[in-house]
């Protein structure tokens, strides 16, 4: 009986420690040191939440930059990829359709090389970044749709360059641009 009581005490202590104390400690540290990230990196405009800089949003408007494709239709709840392999006929068909649509939507020459992130969905289906090259390929469409002047065009191109982030730790991944931040910058060009 003595060992049962000791086991229950240990169980209660560990439950309190790992179920209440530790989560509260980690949450407190996150709120103190990384408040914006701990709260989802939500961006606001006029006091209204417009999105998170960590989650891609769907856009099929000609006045906005588009994110990379999503296998989950940009729904953050299931978060995931398609799990289709490179030998999949279905994946090849999807890539061909995405390439054709990207060229049509952006009014590009059919021989234009399309960056791979505009053809393949990310593993999470929610990656908010595209390459600066993909952003530059979309810039012409946005310039035409918004009827930008030469000065505004230059601001957009400079904005793409300015918002380009280098590879993480200078060696992981590739240069990238956050699409939501890019769309906000595009919206602010006067």
Set out the fold topology.
Blueprint: H1 2-33, H2 35-38, E1 42-45, E2 48-52, H3 89-105, E3 129-130, H4 132-146, H5 150-163, E4 177-178, H6 179-188
Antiparallel strand pairs: 1-2, 3-4
What is this structure, in a nutshell?
The protein has 190 residues and is mainly alpha-helical. The chain folds into two domains: 1-39; 40-188, no CATH class.
Characteristic terms for this protein:
190 residues, 6 helices, two-stranded antiparallel sheet, single chain, mainly alpha, two-stranded antiparallel ribbon, 48% helix
Q: What is the CA–CA distance across the termini? A: 78 Å
The topology string of helices and strands comes to HHEEHEHHEH
- Could you report the average pLDDT, rounded to the nearest whole number? 92
Q: What structural category arises from helix and sheet content?
A: mainly alpha
Q: Stretches where pLDDT falls below 50 for ≥5 residues?
A: none
Radius of gyration over C-alpha positions, nearest whole angstrom: 23 Å
**What proportion of the residues is helical, as a percent range?**
40-55%
Instruction: Compute the number of strand runs.
Output: 4
Number of domains: 2
What features would you describe in this structure?
The protein has 190 residues and is mostly helical. It has two domains: 1-39; 40-188, no CATH class. It is built from six helices and four strands. The protein has helices at residues 2-33, 35-38, 89-105, 132-146, 150-163, 179-188; strands at 42-45, 48-52, 129-130, 177-178. A two-stranded antiparallel sheet has the order 1-2. A two-stranded antiparallel ribbon has the order 3-4. Strand 1 and strand 2 form a beta hairpin. Helix 4 (132-146) runs antiparallel to helix 5 (150-163) and helix 5 (150-163) runs antiparallel to helix 6. The N and C termini lie far apart (78 Å).
């Amino acid at each position: 009986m003595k060992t049962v009581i000791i086991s229950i005490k240990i169980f209660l202590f560990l439950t309190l420690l790992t179920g209440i104390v530790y989560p509260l400690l980690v949450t407190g540290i996150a709120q103190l040191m990384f408040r914006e990230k701990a709260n989802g990196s939500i961006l606001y405009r006029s006091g209204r939440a417009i999105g998170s800089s960590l989650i891609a949003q769907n856009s099929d408007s000609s006045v906005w930059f588009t994110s990379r494709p999503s296998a989950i239709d940009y729904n953050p709840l299931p978060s995931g990829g398609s799990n289709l392999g490179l030998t999949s006929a279905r994946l090849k068909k999807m890539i061909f359709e995405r390439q054709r649509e990207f060229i049509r939507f952006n009014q590009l020459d059919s021989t234009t090389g399309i960056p791979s992130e505009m053809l393949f969905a990310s593993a999470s289906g929610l990656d908010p970044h595209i390459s600066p090259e993909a952003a530059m390929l979309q810039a012409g469409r946005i310039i035409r749709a918004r009827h930008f002047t030469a000065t505004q065009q230059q601001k957009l191109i400079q904005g793409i360059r300015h918002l380009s982030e280098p590879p993480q730790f200078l060696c992981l991944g590739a240069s990238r641009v956050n699409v939501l931040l890019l769309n906000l910058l595009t919206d602010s060009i006067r």
